[in-house]
Please model this.
Amino acid sequence: MPKVTIHHLEVRFQVDGDDGAVFTRLFNQHIQAWAKLYEDQCARAQHTKDERSFGDGEVQL
Model:
């Protein structure tokens, strides 16, 4: 699984209430959605790799 390095991240928003809590909630919501999509993509890639090797006589774990 490739690693991602964020060198610079700037976020600006204006909300009513506790800015930190709103940011945390939104960040967690979106990072979880991104992680789910990424995990699904990795699973599809592995499934495709497994299907391509089917019948080659090799077992790849």
